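User: Round two. Same drill as before: sequence, then structure, for each protein.

Assistant: Same drill it is. First protein:
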Amino acid sequence: MKNKLLWLVLLVFVAGCGKEDTDEYLLSLDKEKLVESLNYDKIFFYKFAKIALRSSAVRDTTLPEYQLFANRTRNVVNSFSKATTSGDQDISVTDAILMYKDYRAVSKLVKETDEDIFPTVVEAINMNYADKASPVVYLMGESKLYNENVEHAILSMIVLGTKDLGKDFALYECSKTNPEKLKDSEEKTLLEFIRGVLFFSHKLHYLSEDGISRNITWLDKHADIPLPYTKAFFGWRNFNDEQTRTAFLSMNYLFRGFDRLMMERDIDQERALKDFELFLGKANELGIENETVWAIESFLYLKKGKPEKALPALRKLKASPLCSEAERKSIQESIDYIESRDDDAALNAAYDKFFIAKIVAKYTFSVLAKINWEQVMTEKKVPHTAELFTTIDRFQKMSEAVSGYMSPAIVETGKKSLIEKSTNVMDKAKGLFK
C-alpha cells in the first residue's frame, strides 16, 4: 500500500513539473501577466474617458449600459466637446479634479465593463457631428467586430507615438484586439503583427510568439491577398507584391525569433536561431540593408563561432544614428574582443541577446513612429479624421491633468488650489477629498 502511495505522489509530481514547461502553460501565464500589466489607475482612467466618449453616441438613454455611467461622464464629454468645437486645449484644475472625482466614483465599474459594448470611437465622433434628428444606424455583428479591431489597432499605434500615453496605453489598445476572429484580409495580418510587436516590447513573449506563429501560417496560406497597406506601413515603396510578402514574412520571423530567444528552454533557443536565419535569408534575397539586418548578422556569426565575419556588420551598426553613445561603446567592446581574437570574450561581451533586442526594437519603433496616421486616414477619406485626432490629443491632455491627482500629496495641492479659486468651485468639489 505504501509503495502504491509513493508511486502516486511521484506521478503527480512529474505531471506537475511537465505542465510548467509546456507552451500552453507558459502562454496562460503570459495572459495573466497581461491583465496585471494593465491593472492601474492611469489605464483605467483612459478606459473611463473612452467609455464616456463611446457611450455619448447612445441615443436610447434608457439602455442599462448607458444608465450605469450616465451621471458620471458629463464632465469628460464636455471636455471633449470644448476641444473639438472651440479648439480649447486647456484643462483647468477644477475640470481635472471633477473628472477624477467622476472616475473614482465608478472605478470598480470601469474595471468590470467592456468598453466594446458601446458604439465605436469613430461612431461617437461621427454621431456627435451628425444631425441629431436623423436616424442613426449602428454597426452590428461582424461589421462592428471588424471596425472595433481596426480602431483599437490604429489607436494603439497613434498613442504609441504620444509623449504621455505611449507603450502602456498602446498595450491596452492591442489587448482589446482579436485578429483571429476577423475575416481573411490584409488588415488581419497587419493587426496580428502590430499586436505581436507590442506584446514583445512588454516582455509578453509567449503571447507574442503565439500570435506571430499564427501570422506566419496565415501568410503562407494566403499568398493571393495583396498587401498595399503593409508596403506603405514599412515604406517599401520599391517592392512589388511578392517582394512585400517576402519582406513582411521576414519581419514576422525576426520578432518570433526574438520572442524565442528571450525564453528559457533550450528548444526555444534553437528555434530562435532558425528564425533568425530565415529572416536573414529573406532580407539578403531582397537586398535589405538596415540596423536590424546588421544586428542579426553579427549575432548569428558570433553564435556560429565566426566572429571575424561579424566585424563588417558591427561597424555599420556602430555608425548608425539610432545607436546611443552607450550602445556604440558596447559594440566597440565586441569589435575590440574580436580583433584581439578572444572569441569567448566576444560571445560573452555586452553584445548579447538583450542588446540586439533593444537595437531591433528601437529600429522597429522608429519606423512605426514615422507613419502619419492622420495623413493616411485623410487620404482614405475617413470622415471627421481631424476631429478624431483632436479627440486623441484630448485623451492625452486629460491623462496628464488627472494623473496629478492620483497621489495624496498632489490631491492636497489641488484641494488648496480649489480653496484659493473660489467658494463656488469648492462647493462643486465638495466631498471629493473625504
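Second protein:
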Amino acid sequence: MPKLNRIFDQLALNKHSQTKTSFNQPLHLFRGLAIIAIVGAHAWSFMIFWTGSLDSIGLKVLFSITEMLFHGSTLYFALISGMLFSMVLAKRSWKQFYTNKLLHVILPYIAVSVFYFSFYGGWQSEMPQNEFFISLLLGKASIHLWYIPVLMVLYLLTPLLWQLVSNPQYKWLTLTIMLIPLVISRSPFPDFIKLQTFFYFAGAYTTGLFFGCHFKRILDLINLHIKSLLLLLVVLSVAIVASYFFDFYYTGWFSVRQSLIYLQKLIITGVVLVGLYLATEKLKSAKTPKQISFLSLVTVLGDMAFSVYFLHVFFMGWIIYVAQNWLITDRNTFEIGLYGLASLVGSILASVLLTLIFQKTFSNSSRKLIGA
C-alpha cells in the first residue's frame, strides 16, 4: 500500500507541478471524489440486480443506504461543469470552449460508444448503422452513457445560461432555473433521457455556474452555517433511505425522492468543497505532496474522471460475471455488500490502469480516445 501511495503521489506531482493560476485545487479534488461516487452508484445496484432482486430485508437496507449515498451523483458532474465554466472557461472564447468539448468529451464519447456497441453485439442487428446512430444520440451504447447527450445539450445552452447568471437583472429567472429540479425530476430507469431530464440537469448546471461566480463568498456562507447544513443533510439522508421502504412513486415529472436527492447533493457539494478548501489551505505549508497521499490519489482520479466514467462499467461487468454464479446460488447481504465494494475498487483501479496504458501508448491523443 505505501508503494501504491507513492505512485499516486508522483502522478499527482507530475501532473500539477506547474499549476496554473486558473487551476482550482478544491474543485479538482471534488471531481475526483465525484467519480468515486458515480462508480459507487453502479457498484452495489448492479451487483444486486444483475444477480437477482431485492429478495430480503437485508438487501433492501443495503440498497437503500447505497442509493442514499450514491444515487444522483451525476449531479456532481453537472455542478462541477458549471463551476468550471464560471471560474476558468468563461475567460476563453466560445470557439475554444466548443473545440475543447468536441475533442475531449464528444470524440472520446463516440470512441467508447463504438467499443460498447461492438462489445454488446450491436453490429449484428438488422440495421446496425441506424441503431448505432440512435444509441449515440441517446447514450444507449452502454447503460451509463446517457449523461453525455445531456451534457452536450448543456454545452449548447451555456451561452444563454451564462448570459442569465452573469447579469444581475436576470437574477429571479436564474434562481427559478436553479430551483427547477425541486419540481421537475429526472426520468427514471430505464428511460434516462426524456425532456424532464434536461430540465433537471439544466437546473444543476445553472447552480454550478452561479456557485462558480461567487465561489469564495458561498464557501464562507456555508462555513458559517456548517452545523445547520450538516443537520439538514442528516435529515434529508434519513428521508431518502425511508423513501425506499414506502411508496414514493413518480407523479408525472415529479418525484419527492429526486427532490430530496437534489437538495442532499447540493449540500454535500458545498460542505465537501469547504472541507477541501480548508484542507488545501493548510497543505500550502506542507513540504512535500507525499504528506497527502489520499489527496494525491483523488487528484489523479480528478485528472482521469472522464476516462474512469467511460470505462468503469466494462470492468464492473466482468467483476460481476466472476461473482455471479456464487451469488445466484447463495445470495446474502454481507456477500453482496462485499462484492459491491470489490466492484467499486476494482473497476476504478482497472480503469485507472487502462488510462495509464493509453496515456503511455498514445500520449496526448489518449484524451481524444478515452477522455484522459
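The chain is about 75% helix and 0% strand.

User: Perfect.
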